[in-house]
Every structure is written in structure tokens, then in C-alpha cells.
């Protein structure tokens, strides 16, 4: 039997996964300590347990949503395991989870493959529910403000700029006291939608300096690897001269300095929720037949647009879900896409999805069967 509603064995393995498995220590949580999870009007689905896995980029958002849902719907358990987008998609396509989180949309072949787990002629939908900036975090004592442009960023992560006092970095930061010290770029070791989004930006904005095709697997030269967003955070914290990419919520919670981007706009653009929302507002739906996959302009040049932004999609069957779990899937994802669920994102450094798109998401969730 396909496991959409948790069996005892899997439930035992994943209980407390939100808690969050794959998110590292409590210090990596993006939840403010005093956040109130109680709501007056949350619509609860039927009692039961849902298994889900995937994106670690949305781990902090999932932690808020799961805690809120379970606080108000005591008979339900949602176990989200932050395994990374690649693993989450694989588990969903194997029929082992109710939904997956992925920082890149399923492609046409994967949607076709989903027909084997979505019964009654159903197929998987890409539902964009979480957005946020991919921050470039660095550890460089004495340098609290660092500006990089796409070409310099690409050459750093491709191991072609290797010292912090390189002329290309100095040109962008003439007043900074840049040390004559090695740069240690870190990238994800696991299959990661964050990696694919970051390298999509490098490929679009600096094609001459980043020759590699975007992918969940890291293709750049050199550097060192760590598992998950929390793994990259830990490496930046521990290694002077380190630089890496991860979601803004991880950077803020761990007090890690982040790069401002020289995009060609009037002034460098900081990684903020507001500037990421500017990029999301300009995204367009490119999915077909009800799918809501989005396309971004990575080369935008505006002072209110931070272009390294990712959207996490919740991937679920439009129909053909397990009858005993579909009500709980709809209730939980419906809360995440609701005004209250989206409002909670800004408090933990994510950007809500723009109204025209999130309205379509809500309609897709309502129609699930």
C-alpha cells in the first residue's frame, strides 16, 4: 500500500521530525522565542498523521505552520522531514509521502511520473507557497558590509577568485579593510533546490563567469561541501574567510553578515523580505493545465528587487490522493496558503507569495480530491 497516511513504523521514525529533522541545532531555527501559535479560526481537517519531506529552505516556515496547526488541531500530526528537495521529490514519486517540498518545480517528465502515485488520472501540481531571498553569508571579521556583483560572486564560487583582497572585490568595496586571506566557498553536498536557484541566478546574471548549467547538484569547481542549509550555516560560523548561500532566516537567526548585490541598479540591493517580494511580484506562471510553476527575472536591475530568490513548491496530487488523508492534506496546505499562514512568513524572514498567485494556489488546494 502506498504510504500517504503514516504507518506505525514510519510514524515512529518521523515523530518529532518537526522538531525538524535535517535542520540542525535549535540555534538554526528561525522561530522567534515568543511566537504565539494559537489561532481563533483555523479550519482543522480530520484527525490523522501526514508524512512529508523535502526542502530544507522552508524548514523554518514549516516549523511555524506545523506548530500552529497542531496547537489548534490536537488530533493531527504533520511530520515534515527536511531531507532536501531532491530527496523529498524522490520520496513523493515513490508514494511514500503525502506531499513534498521542493525549491524547484517538477519538470514535465517528473509530472508524468507522478501519475503512477496519483490515482484516478491525477498528477502532481507545483504549488508555490513559500518564497524568500537566498542570502550570501560570509565570515570576515572587521568587514560588516560587503558588496559583490554577479561576475565576482560567480568567480568566487567557481574558485577563480581565491583571496579576499582580490582587486575585483576591492573595486566593489574601496573603503573596506579586506584581508590578504583565503576565501573558502561552501556549497551544498545534498541535492538542493537552493543550489539550483542560486546557480540559475549565476548562469543568467553572469554567463561568462559561470559556465555551468543550473542543477540541484553542485557543478562549480573546488570549494567545500556541507549537508543542508544548517550545515552551511555551521561552516560559515566556524571558518574565518568562509562564504556560502542559504535562506535569510538562517542568516538572521545566527547573526551572520550577508552580501549586498550590485545588480546594476542605482545602489546595491540587500537580501531582505521586502526586496525578495519585489522579485516574486515580477514572477510569471509558466506551468500548464493548472500547474503553477513560476519563472523569475534573475537579471532585474531595480533598487527594490533582490534577484536571488527561491520559491518552495508544495508538490501534491491534484486528485487521486489516499481517501483517508486527502482531507488533512487540504486542511494543512490550505492553512499554509491562507492569509494567516502567509502573514506568518514575514515574521521569520520569508516573503509571502503575491496575491494573484496565492489566490490560484488556494483554488487548486480546494479542488484536490
From TrEMBL:
<keyword id="KW-0592">Phosphate transport</keyword>
<comment type="similarity">
    <text>Belongs to the PstS family.</text>
</comment>
<dbReference type="GO" id="GO:0035435">
    <property type="term" value="P:phosphate ion transmembrane transport"/>
</dbReference>
<dbReference type="InterPro" id="IPR050962">
    <property type="entry name" value="Phosphate-bind_PstS"/>
</dbReference>
<dbReference type="InterPro" id="IPR005673">
    <property type="entry name" value="ABC_phos-bd_PstS"/>
</dbReference>
<feature type="domain" description="PBP">
    <location>
        <begin position="47"/>
        <end position="340"/>
    </location>
</feature>
<dbReference type="GO" id="GO:0042301">
    <property type="term" value="F:phosphate ion binding"/>
</dbReference>
<feature type="binding site">
    <location>
        <position position="103"/>
    </location>
    <ligand>
        <name>phosphate</name>
    </ligand>
</feature>
<dbReference type="GO" id="GO:0043190">
    <property type="term" value="C:ATP-binding cassette (ABC) transporter complex"/>
</dbReference>
<dbReference type="InterPro" id="IPR024370">
    <property type="entry name" value="PBP_domain"/>
</dbReference>
<feature type="binding site">
    <location>
        <begin position="192"/>
        <end position="194"/>
    </location>
    <ligand>
        <name>phosphate</name>
    </ligand>
</feature>
<keyword id="KW-0813">Transport</keyword>
<dbReference type="Pfam" id="PF12849">
    <property type="entry name" value="PBP_like_2"/>
</dbReference>
<feature type="binding site">
    <location>
        <begin position="55"/>
        <end position="57"/>
    </location>
    <ligand>
        <name>phosphate</name>
    </ligand>
</feature>
<protein>
    <recommendedName>
        <fullName>Phosphate-binding protein</fullName>
    </recommendedName>
</protein>
<feature type="binding site">
    <location>
        <position position="85"/>
    </location>
    <ligand>
        <name>phosphate</name>
    </ligand>
</feature>
Amino acid at each position: 500500500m502506498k504510504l500517504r497516511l503514516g504507518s506505525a513504523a514510519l510514524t515512529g521514525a518521523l515523530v518529532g521530525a518537526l522538531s525538524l529533522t535535517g535542520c540542525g541545532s535549535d540555534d538554526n531555527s528561525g522561530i522567534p522565542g515568543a511566537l504565539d501559535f494559537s489561532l481563533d479560526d483555523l479550519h482543522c481537517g480530520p484527525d490523522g498523521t501526514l508524512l512529508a519531506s523535502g526542502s530544507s529552505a522552508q524548514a523554518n516556515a514549516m516549523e511555524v505552520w506545523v506548530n500552529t496547526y497542531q496547537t489548534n488541531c490536537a488530533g493531527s500530526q504533520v511530520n515534515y522531514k527536511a531531507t532536501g528537495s531532491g530527496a523529498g521529490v524522490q520520496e513523493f514519486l515513490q508514494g511514500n509521502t503525502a506531499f513534498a517540498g521542493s525549491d524547484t518545480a517538477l519538470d514535465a517528465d517528473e509530472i508524468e511520473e507522478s501519475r503512477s502515485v496519483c490515482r484516478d488520472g491525477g498528477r502532481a501540481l507545483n504549488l508555490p507557497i513559500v518564497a524568500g531571498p537566498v542570502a550570501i553569508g560570509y565570515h570576515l571579521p572587521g568587514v560588516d558590509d560587503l558588496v559583490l556583483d554577479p561576475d565576482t560572486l560567480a568567480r568566487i564560487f567557481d574558485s577563480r577568485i581565491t583571496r579576499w583582497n582580490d582587486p575585483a572585490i576591492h573595486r566593489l568595496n574601496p573603503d573596506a579593510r579586506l584581508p590578504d586571506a583565503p576565501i573558502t566557498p561552501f556549497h551544498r553536498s545534498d541535492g538542493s533546490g537552493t543550489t539550483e536557484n542560486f546557480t540559475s541566478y549565476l548562469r543568467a546574471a553572469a554567463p561568462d563567469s559561470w559556465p555551468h548549467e543550473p542543477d540541484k547538484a553542485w557543478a562549480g569547481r573546488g570549494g567545500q561541501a556541507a549537508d543542508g542549509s544548517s550545515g552551511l550555516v555551521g561552516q560559515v560560523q566556524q571558518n574565518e574567510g568562509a562564504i556560502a548561500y542559504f535562506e535569510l532566516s538562517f542568516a538572521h537567526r545566527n547573526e551572520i553578515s550577508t552580501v549586498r548585490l550590485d545588480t546594476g541598479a542605482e545602489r546595491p540591493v540587500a537580501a531582505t523580505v521586502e526586496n525578495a517580494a519585489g522579485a516574486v511580484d515580477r514572477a510569471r506562471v509558466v506551468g500548464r493545465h493548472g500547474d503553477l510553476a513560476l519563472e523569475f527575472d534573475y537579471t532585474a536591475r531595480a533598487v527594490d528587487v533582490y534577484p536571488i530568490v527561491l520559491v518552495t513548491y508544495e508538490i501534491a496530487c491534484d486528485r487521486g490522493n489516499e481517501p483517508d488523508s486527502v482531507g488533512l492534506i487540504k486542511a494543512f496546505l490550505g492553512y499554509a496558503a491562507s492569509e494567516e499562514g502567509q502573514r506568518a512568513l514575514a515574521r521569520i524572514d520569508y516573503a509571502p507569495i503575491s496575491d494573484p498567485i496565492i489566490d490560484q494556489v488556494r483554488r487548486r488546494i480546494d479542488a484536490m480530491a
